[in-house]
Amino acid sequence: MSAEPRHIVSVEPFTRDYLQRVFTITDEMDLMVQTRGRTGLLDDCVVALLFYEPSSRTMLSFQSAAQRLRAGVLFAQGRDGSSMKKGESIEDTIRVVASYSDLIVMRHWEHGAAERAASISTVPFINGGDGGNEHPTQALIDAYTIHRELGRLDDLHVVFGFDPRHSRSIHSLALLLSRGQNMRLTFVSPDELRMPPWLRERLAARNVVVEETSALAGSAEADVLYVNRLQQERFASPADFERLRRKFVVTPELLDGSSAIVLDPLPRIDEIDLAVDALPNAKYFEQVAHGVPLRMALLAMLLDRR
Amino acid sequence: MSAEPRHIVSVEPFTRDYLQRVFTITDEMDLMVQTRGRTGLLDDCVVALLFYEPSSRTMLSFQSAAQRLRAGVLFAQGRDGSSMKKGESIEDTIRVVASYSDLIVMRHWEHGAAERAASISTVPFINGGDGGNEHPTQALIDAYTIHRELGRLDDLHVVFGFDPRHSRSIHSLALLLSRGQNMRLTFVSPDELRMPPWLRERLAARNVVVEETSALAGSAEADVLYVNRLQQERFASPADFERLRRKFVVTPELLDGSSAIVLDPLPRIDEIDLAVDALPNAKYFEQVAHGVPLRMALLAMLLDRR
Amino acid sequence: MSAEPRHIVSVEPFTRDYLQRVFTITDEMDLMVQTRGRTGLLDDCVVALLFYEPSSRTMLSFQSAAQRLRAGVLFAQGRDGSSMKKGESIEDTIRVVASYSDLIVMRHWEHGAAERAASISTVPFINGGDGGNEHPTQALIDAYTIHRELGRLDDLHVVFGFDPRHSRSIHSLALLLSRGQNMRLTFVSPDELRMPPWLRERLAARNVVVEETSALAGSAEADVLYVNRLQQERFASPADFERLRRKFVVTPELLDGSSAIVLDPLPRIDEIDLAVDALPNAKYFEQVAHGVPLRMALLAMLLDRR
Lengths: 306, 306, 306
Description:
Three copies of one chain form a homotrimer. Chain A has helices at residues 16-36, 57-68, 90-98, 113-120, 136-150, 168-177, 197-204, 238-245, 284-289, 291-302, and strands spanning 46-51, 72-77, 103-108, 125-130, 157-161, 183-188, 208-213, 224-227, 261-263. Chain A is an alpha/beta fold. In chain A, β5, α6 (168-177) and β6 (183-188) form a beta-alpha-beta unit. At the A-B interface, α2 and α9 of A face β2 and α3 of B.
């Protein structure tokens, strides 16, 4: 068995073999939850969930994953109650929590926080999202969903919208998919929300076709249409936001005749018309449901129970 | 066995048979907690507790109920960290959380939120209070306490005070008790806090005597005196609030010679004099304690373990 | 077996025998965690953790202690969501939570809150810090660390810095250590942060040498150097704070040739230079790690499982 990552900070170290192993164990966890509800695989472990930045899905699905595995859970929420608010360094926080628990999941508001945390942690560490940087477990959920729906992570045309600049989910999934063979990645966004230079440079070094456009038309010819909300707080002008939120929307009309699967890390605000929910293209609620068994797989693997 | 509600949104569908069954199972749960502390009845389940609005008793007693039954718990607190804050609909939130858990309890700030949630939920749903609308599990606790103390839910004179306008606990209990035979419901409040029209209309359609008054004198002639705090934030004028909070108070003098039981969903602010605590009429701390076994009964019933 | 405290409010009732018993059970818990991870000692119990004031270490280590013992956990965080915010008394809150749980841990912003809570609680109560008053479980962790490192709680010179005025950790540890034989306690601080009169008076009544100084030099000649951050919010003038935070710092230079152990209840802000971490004097991360087994010992003892 090849070496597996001890921490999950970025999608970059994930090999094809590793993905396959994660997906296989996710399938097993999915079946276990459906048939038995919970299992005692982590019954002798305590995992710390540190959510210093608001989150709903990531937080609740990690809670669910830990509970389904019967791990004990330590839970801290919010920046205000944290000792970082008092000026403690990320390194000191991690040293302390590592002495309280057997594994740490952390969401943090700062780009690079996960790397700093993992470098000091004496227990396995999982990045639950760090600023505008990465969100590797979300990327694994997304890739798992694509693989489960389409049977492959090669020979794909994937359209990403609508905020490649700020969306860490887009960043991580694009990096992960860029490892595949014969991949075409199209980024659809308003001009002001194009991908950050660091991502463009990393993708340029890969064997992948990358396109950037502000035209939504034709997106549904892709195999996968992966969209995320525009974040109002990123716009200087409310008028710009109002104009663009009405323009970048996945509608039944856009999907007419398309077999593309539509994914969204959620929350969904305006980026997908409610009428899309009933179409066979819509896979975002299946996608979010995969979060629990996949995160169960990661917890079990990092704690050497699988 | 007659059909039982799959969700708990309002007190309206509760039949007499259903109440009897809830009360019987509550008695069993109470005995179990006293003798064994916890039981593995929900050991293979995960329940989600979503408290988007501040709560203390409802939140802590649902936590306790889940823990006493050894269920796994998912926990979200506060509006700010929620994806609703980012603009997600109640329906999307519920779809997501239903894929993470086996049952959802939600407290929400919006009148009608529970109905919307239950209509979409694929797992059992419990309304933990929705805006100024209803609080059905509190009403069950209140009715259980009355039944346990007085042995009946018929032939009762119940006085409600002191904020029939805003108190969802009063709304739900009044609706529940209005199903009984030979019931007299008296609402005591400042004129500006009389019950809302929707409640008055619903009660008017029932076979029950309804009275509204601003006079506290004589209240202790009732069988049950059910009171709740005046909510300072509801008053435009601080002077009005100060004047009324000193007027609408249950005192030993008021209870002189009375055998009425005094209930309060708590928190108690000024509405019950501390000297009442020592009187045999005071049943509000027994009432709050019943919250755990009763909510255990509801969790177990909705998950078909009883 | 001599009587043990039913509640933990202050360090004052702790006898030498009691400390020895706590330390012995802490050793056992430490070994259990290392070998088995978790134990079912409190599997039939539910403990309430009420953190009305921000905390990180105390909250997370009590969570960990409860999870390692497999207790069910009730959890409330923050002042805003509490019923005290609505005006409920501490006494009513405790009455309610005592009917939901088998043991209560509370951190509260008010000096004296713990005494009021313990006086009414029908279940064992632990003070997790009350305002500027006491933090008895922290003092036990600190004393345990000193005893484990140096083998004694007598014949010690302990230097406390740098905020004896506000630090409840310093208050509680100084009171606890003042019970020893042949003890010398030196308090190093800016003049404006000298210990409060109530502490000075209590120590004056003991058989202990007490010194106060604003000179840091020579501190490392002590057996123990116990320091805590200066709290910015306590200073009227930002300039004063900036000047003093750079002056009161434990550095490798200060520790040159010293065998003093350096302790800190954390978070560490500026009071210990990062270069100290690598020195054998540094014991603050060991100290914080002892928090879990020690709090496990307290939970088990108060619930009569040890």
